[in-house]
Amino acid sequence: MDIIGNRKYVNVPGGKTHELPPLLLKERATPTPLEQILALAEQMVETEALGPEIRRAAYENDSSFQQRKFNLAINFAEHYLQFLRHWDWGESIVEWIRQCETTFESKAALRLLMNADVWPHVNHSSFVTLLSDKAVPSGEVNLENAVGFRLTFRQPPPIECLSDNFLVFNAPLAQKAYHTWADAAKQGSLPPERFHFLVVGEDIKQV
């Protein structure tokens, strides 16, 4: 076992580089049209997001009031789309972890690494750490938050089921869900140089 800083890396027998299943980045089968999301966001603004200051503006300057309402709706819509991007990544990662576990179980050199009697052993979140160590390109998506949202929601709720506070301040919820899941068992990290796999989305990357 190698220890680098606070990280404990499991010993992978031999010197072979192991091929893991591809990470398939799923796309929404029936994405909600942007116009519909924006319209629902405008309804949210009307029902729960208009504070006294904004309501006062409705009487003083109607055009300013309408612009501020529209800006709030755009802000909520953007936060919701970002939430959906994170959830989609989380769904893809959770499915990939299941496939990786099957791969580990099928290979004698890797099977024992997931044995709870071995310390430190590999658990589910070790694969999320591997994605970070391999610098998988995820754009603005935080991988831990993505998995945290997927752990919280089996399906992403429609925007009308979410509050304005959730849309704006949801990152701590995702982080809490992820770390509660990750800290459930002691884990070892997978040495990134011993594994490679494809990331398949709009293009294909080898990592």
Give the helix proportion (percent range): 40-55%
What profile does the largest beta sheet have?
3 strands, mixed
Instruction: Give me the count of strands.
Output: 7
The structure class reads: mainly alpha
Q: Total number of helical segments?
A: 8
What is the 3D shape?
elongated
SSE series:
EEEEHHHHHHHHEEE
Q: Strand sequence of the main sheet, in spatial order?
A: 4-6-7
What multimeric state do the chains show?
single chain
- Number of spatially distinct domains: 1
| Cα end-to-end separation | 23 Å
Low-confidence stretches: 1-5
User: What percent of residues are in strands?
Assistant: 5-15%
Q: What average pLDDT do the residues reach?
A: 83
For the CA atoms, what is the radius of gyration?
Answer: 22 Å
Task: Summarize the SSE layout with pairings.
Elements: E1 2-4, E2 7-9, E3 18-19, E4 23-24, H1 34-49, H2 52-60, H3 62-106, H4 108-111, H5 124-133, H6 143-152, H7 164-168, H8 171-182, E5 195-196, E6 198-200, E7 204-206
Parallel strand pairs: 3-5, 4-6
Antiparallel strand pairs: 1-2, 6-7
How does this structure look, described?
- With 207 residues, this protein is mostly helical.
- The chain has one domain (33-206).
- The chain is built from 8 helices and 7 strands, in the order ββββααααααααβββ.
- The protein has helices at 34-49, 52-60, 62-106, 108-111, 124-133, 143-152, 164-168, 171-182; strands at residues 2-4, 7-9, 18-19, 23-24, 195-196, 198-200, 204-206.
- The strands form 3 sheets. Strands 4-6-7 form a 3-stranded mixed sheet. Strands 1-2 form a two-stranded antiparallel sheet.
- Helix 2 (52-60) packs antiparallel against helix 3 (62-106), helix 3 crosses helix 6 (143-152) and helix 6 crosses helix 8 (171-182).
